[in-house]
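worker-3 :: picked Histidine utilization repressor
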Amino acid sequence: MSTQTQRIKSALLKEISELQIDGSQKLPSERHLSERFGTTRVTLREALRLLEADGIIYRENRRGWFITPPRLHYDPSVHARISFMNYAQQQGFIPKSTLYQFKHIVADEFLAAVMNTVVGKPLYHICRIRYLDERPVLFENMMIRADLLKGLDNVDMTGSLHQKLRDDYGLIISRADFEMTVTTLPKEEATALNALEGAAALKFHRRYFNEDGTIFEFDIEFWRHDAITVAYEYNNNQPVRPF
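worker-3 :: tokens ->
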């Protein structure tokens, strides 16, 4: 990192922390900032990308740079018990979900292996976009066993799907497992989240089991990396089990 890049990064970080940039959440244009700091667009973008990597700012495709809002404190251990909508509301956010795509597919070799079923098993593939205060932060792919949960075509997908499954199908989640990796956004997911292809992201793989121990759902989630803080509580006297 050059001295000039560090100087620009430090100056912007100070102004952001003091909320002195135009009194709004949007940063001035790159042209304005480069002229103000007397530097090239290349050097400026290097400083902006460093702030982006730290989660201080984020970029929206064709809209510019914004100050990152407060993060959702995300505990995977409660995800199966409390819906995204309620979880976000409890932390003061205004959450929203929209249906991006719903289609019927069959399990390929990967899905058959991860869901412990057979190739060709009918599945629902449901894609949703999750929002916090009108900002799209999560692209959700859900693969659900169509033979176990028939008629999901007519279910409202903008609310809590698991609550619907409990209320309408009597389905009880007995346990779940998940893994998280750091990745980048593929083109479709980036477009849906108003981000640039290749932007940093957190990727979750998550499986849900019913009372019989059958995997009825497998999710692939792409989160904006600056939208959540992953937290997990452990009690030394009584371990807190994930689900």
